[in-house]
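Q: A reviewer asked whether we had any structural model of the full assembly, not just the individual parts. We don't, so I'm hoping you can provide one. Inputs are below.
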Amino acid sequence: MERSLNNPTSEIRIAADVGGTFTDLVFLDENGRLTTRKVPSTPPDFDRAIAEALDASFQTEGIEPTSVSTVCHGTTVATNAVLERRGARTALITTRGFRDVLELRRIRAPQLYDLFFDKSAPIIPRNLRFEISERMGADGEELKPIDESELDQIAQTLDKEGIESVAVCLIHAYAFPDHEKQIGDFLHEHCPGIPVSLSHVVLRQRREYERTATTAVNAYVRPVMRGYLDRLRTSLTTRRVHAPLSIMQSAGGLTTADDAAARPVFALESGPAAGVLAAATIGSASELVNLLSLDMGGTTAKAALIEGGKIPYSAEYEVGATLSAGNRLTGGGGEVVLAPSIDIAEVGAGGGSIAWLDIVGGLRVGPQSAGALPGPACYGRGGSEPTVTDANVALGYVKSGPLGGGDIVIDADTAYSSIKENIAEPLNIEPVAAAHGIHHIANAQMLRALREVSVHRGRDPRDFTIVAFGGSGPIHAAHLADELGSNQVLIPPRPGVFSAVGLLASGIEHHDVRSCQIVANSEAIEPLQMLLDEMTSPMLNQFATESIEPNTISFQPVFDMRYTGEPSDIRIEVDHQGKLAKTVDLARAMFEEEHHRLYGYAGESGSEVEIVAIRLIGRTEGGGVNCFSEYQAKDTLSGSRTVTFEPTDGAIEVPVVSRTGLHETPGPLLIDEYDATIVVPPDWVATTDPLGSLILNKPMIP
Amino acid sequence: MTNTRTDFHPSIDPITREIIGAALASAAEEMAVGLHRTARSTIVRDALDFSTSLCNGNGEQIAQGTTIPLHLGAVPYALETMFTKYGDDICPGDVFILNDPFQGGMHIPDIFVVKPIFDGDQRVAFAVATAHHLDLGGRVPGSSACDNTEIFQDGLRIPWLKLYDKGKLRQPILDIIRANVRVPDMTIGDLRAQLAACHTGEQAIFRIIERYGTETFINCARDLIDYTEALMRAEIAEWPDGESTFVDYMDSDGCDGPPVRIQCKISVEGDSLTADFEGTDPQVPGAINSTISYTASAVALCTRAVMKMDIPNTAGMFRPLKVIVPHGSVLDPKMPGASSMRGVTGFRKVDVIMGALAGIVPERVLAACEGGNSLVIIGGMRKGSHQPYVYYELVSGTWGARPDRDANDGLCNPGNVAGNIPIEEAECNYPIRIERYGLRKDTGGAGRYRGGMAVDREWTLLEGDAQLTIRSDRRDHLPYGLAGGKPGSGSMNILRRADGEVELPVMVSTPMAAGETIYHQQPGGGGFGDPLTRAPNAVAIDVRADRVSVQAARDEYGVLLDEDGQVDIKGTEALRNERSG
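A: Here is a predicted structure for the entire assembly that you could use as a starting point for your response.
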């Protein structure tokens, strides 16, 4: 706890970020004072940890529950339901001839050379996927009307099978939804009480598998999300917290709990999104707009690229896949979800990743992780295999003794002997050299994620500042920067609960999309305007239910563009609030520029540029950078620790300092904080900026 | 660590090797991602029929992108012929291209683009990007047809040429290509994507050299290859020594002729493996002849797939392998044998090699998969614009059953990474309608573990006349089962015309008219183990999901179900006793 909130009448905003291992709560009062609480998560009843943390904070901090004005929440409940197959008993209704579309997916095997690979089971089993006689043509012609007698039959089966949720996805419904509407109305009348997810409501985009999967996932997690949010609401109400509950979406904005319960597929990647958003916010406050965010936890590391302050979006992502499987080209073998999300690359390298030797003595790290239990060897909780954290302890980066709240006590001797026995002796090298190897091989894996979002997209990482957070990020950040050639790193205040603070910084946001195929010229304006209008009015209605004044909303059109005939498109976001014709011209120019940057060439003059989807984003401003303000580290630490940066240079004595008051202070330095350790290697200098962010720079050697 | 080898002497430390190795793998991946995103054809975009590699200065592969496994061995054979032709005349700024299967290429549609990478005067690496082009001219739209009978019908033959000479583009080469293909914008666009990928690879190598120095890079490249070899040898050494021979057939020679025999004898001795294809049929009139490099790829792919370890994709993988192919056979044809449809031969080779490996490491081999993807190509002129179009679809796939578990129903063959084409995209961009896409009941080979269900798909032509080309197989020679498992079902091609249905041969080119519908059903996967030992409840679950019929449950598996679909335990026991008795 950093400081007590001693003014009980002040309005308090609360953020709760629930992860698989820890639940982080942040309380922010009107004066910008912020307190944090980190408690173990309580799966599968994730709301219990929030309730317990609230009770504890209300008591120790003297917070008056009725003074809470908002509760922002990031949750992995929906994703976990898919991963663990704990969703509702769901049925699918689809066009005759296509019930296996969901199971066949894109037919790709995510892992090459693995004959024992098992495709994950479809979230709706084959016997609950029903076909109906109907068909719309690609041009909107009704080739076959719906056979209502079949529908009647299906409705009876739904009842008999005890179906809890229904997904409907028909061929070409993204553009011609009449048949889906008809089925929706029929089910509403004949099967009242069963929630129905219609594909054209969830996602108006072409590509039948992706739309079916997105709709199916939505239907599958809908009752779970509804139940969870209802329980959380009740739990807040019984604690006299009556403030509205907002949920973080995968694309990085907040929405109401009601909306999230109806369209949970938009909130699957809630937690990671908050971290990237927070990185963008804190970076821009320090006048840094080109950032590579790195969130390194116990089992994975996640990277995202923020350019010009803009959040990167991805057209699709997968749920329910194992992390180590697959890659960008083949996919990971999960269900593809086309809901807007922040573009994040993830690799299986975290503090808990296990180091091992292959049959010819090659040193490898991960993808197996010791997780939180048994955890790294140095936790002394039954783990014996050396992990990345053990290497960091053996190198002296991480101190021995109690960790965080004190539930875990790190034993440096165990870390050292585990590396010695399992790695160093078989390789016939010094244990410290082995630890150094483990640390740097873990870095090599994280570099893959960092390169994937930068160089793979035509961006030079040397132009970017690395923003590192999560429990282990600040240990590795400067070395990663060295490898990438970047000479700046930002470690935000409270790196261990950074994502929770990010929730407070976010505004409310809604996204919509329409597939189309329109050549980007002057004739495009009218049809594009129609599609925009079609999206704008329901969005305004949604904002109205959230009591948002229309004049506080900014609307942004986004275009997915390609040269005619190209199979993939580029997303172009234009900062322009004027006439649509001008916006389209600007978008076209930006498209050509981006195409050249990504692929090394633009089209020949006269090449047709097509718009294949138009999106609309409506946003309000959030708490922004004020949420991070006035950071006070608790005690000024002093002392030193023996650290090995380079085995050839031997161990050196490195001062342990507090982040307060650093100004171009030369490394090596160590900064031990409640939730993380920060490593400043030799050749780097550290400066604390007014917000409490620690900026590490590597001065150019003249 | 049980078996550290002593004959592997690294020249740099293993940690640096792992770090630079990761950077190289990431670079090859970056090339692949870039090529994939910029290519114009569906065959690259959806079928992922391309590959990217980085080689050291001697042309030995040091990294490959996660791309089509059957390209694994292509690069060394290609570069060897390039060195023969150009010798020392390989300069900074040069870019080479090739597709001729008689000069180290694979088949006409695959164009290799090779860029040498120099650090000053020193040649340190090569970037290689290979892609299957939608059309390179020749007899039929899409170039590939099983009944092409000489290479000249397969399309434009490109010997090793410098497309760029010391940085200068030789435009006439592009002009010739453009003039000889049906969809020039797409072909040139894809070629440009390959060039961009090579440029990407070059930049990545420069970054690595800048960071670690030229000498470390060169030593590391050598170590990576040695390390791969050591891994391969260590694992082969654990296998029992011995020989195992397997024979399988393709239904047709490509021209509706007799079946084609492929034979492989695998011999394991110590830490080396030999694959001898003696006994394979001579080359055939149709375009399903294959090349040596493709056979070497198949051997490497299968050996790697049955290994427990993850092996880096470097030249070291080939060192413990010896591949013997009779010259003039269907696996190494003489001029002017056609080869544009050699893909089917590649898949059959994989089946034969796997079948032989089942005699060595039975616990690691699966029953036959569907026999590889089928090709269905529809080409004609658009009604309004009179522009030619080529609709090129790979239909894949389903797996065979494994020694300890069922097959995957509906998953691309392990020799491939192809995806399917979204139905809604296809219908918006081509004059076709897709009537059905799904899995067929009672097609997976019965076994203790069930083979994969067959995939089927059906297309209606909506306008004009078109040329329909199909490459499929395994209608007569079914995907084999192992250890008593039954084979999967055979393939089927049915053309529905106004005047009735016609069954088409497995490999065929034929006209098609608007309103006609072509139905293709792929083969099912083979089963593993005796079907009478399959858990009765697993059969009941399959029946419930409509994967297996009540009748097949009784006839194939000896399982009786009651009215609710539950296992009739006593009846089943009695029936099975009677059958096995």
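A: Points you may want to mention in the reply: Residues 1-8 of chain A have pLDDT under 50 and may be disordered. Chain A touches chain B through 71 residues (CB under 8 Å).
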